Amino acid sequence: MDSDYEPPPWKSYLYQLQQQAPQPRRIVCTMEVENRPKYYGREFHGMISREETDRLLGDVEGSYLIRESQRQPGSYTLAIRFGGTTKNFRLYYDGKHFVADKRFDTIQNLVADGLITMYIEAKAEEYIKRMTGEPIYEPCGYLSLRKRTSRVVTTFSRTVTTATIDEVDNFSSISSSTSQSSDNSSLDLALSPSKRASIQASSYEKPHNFKVNTFRGPHWCEYCANFMWGLVAQGVKCADCGLATHKQCSKVVPNDCQPHMKYIKKVYGIDLTTIVKAHNTTRPVVVDNCVHEIERRKDGLLSEGLYRVSGFNDDIEEVKLSFDKDGAQADISESAYEDINTIAGALKLYFRMLPIPLITFDVYPKFIEAAKIADDKDCLRKIHETLDELPPAHFQTLSFLMAHLHRVAKCDKFNLMTAENLGMVWGPTLMRLADTNSLAGLTDLKFQRRAVELMIKFQDALFN
Fold it and tell me: What's the rounded Cα separation, in Å, for the pair 451 and 420?
């Protein structure tokens, strides 16, 4: 930690107000009430009028009881004395008690939380409105705030070196004549350099993945530095980096999430941008390591049916679990998994499990429309334009993968995997509709295949 670092100035005003909030005082019914729900206690008074409710509650702040509605038998009302008046709330139960979004194990806790919320909102309404306008977040900086709890982004040091196109060109003597279609110079595309090709991994923008959270013990918002009041669901917490804020503050937090494996805890099935920022890598470690392993093996690129032939499911699952547990240190060497189709299968599984596919849902329709253009030159120009709309991490990963598949296709005389065949295998793996039940996905298959086939053949012109 930097010697000149000072913790942010946490503000105590709302914490003090919570301490001053009225305490819940249960009004006990002294008579036996018929048909009392089993999940209510002696605070249930049966079917009584509002006037009788006011009389029982008296003038004591925080007193409460439950009554059955006279107008709607079978529905229940929580009555709380606050601010000199009786507040009535429709009460629900589904295994937990609730009147709105928050759920509680006991009525006592529900009332206590409600009294805190009502008291703070009554005393500090204007103060709360101003909270997001006076943040400590931007002046202190996101990473400085992270230092408070030593949430340092882990950098996975790796020595992965993938084979270059020049190295694979050593297979030129065994490449078939059909591989000539993979030559980027066969069409004069005159494409401008991609705007995404030079973006560094450290600059990938990622929004926070906020989820409603219950904090144990006093907790302060890391955006505005104010106390997060209440007993449950006091605010939200980023599931990827742990940043904790008020719900209203989360709406103005910049898209600067720095994910940490402490919170993510696995590799497969995690958003692509999230995982590369957590590992501080340009591409997912699964992609780098699997491609490297396939290309470094003596006959890796020559394996017949590479990516078409399925590996043994149990072995593929074992590789998946190894990456989830060990990250870049997962052992996928030939001594561990002799069958190269296991490694190829693990790579395809990684892309299939992405919650947002490599070709994202947003740009998917544009790729399909591009693939429908009959003229190859016009089609490629449209694909090239669309590539710049991909998130940087997706672009870098797609570029890397297409270069690899280009090298696979150059060995099609032996592996029988032409760019067209690879397009058939990889199209549905890399792109899909958000609605997986839509019949449009079936009609799009041939266009998915063509889009991937052309990206493989002309990967250098499209990406570099």
Answer: 10
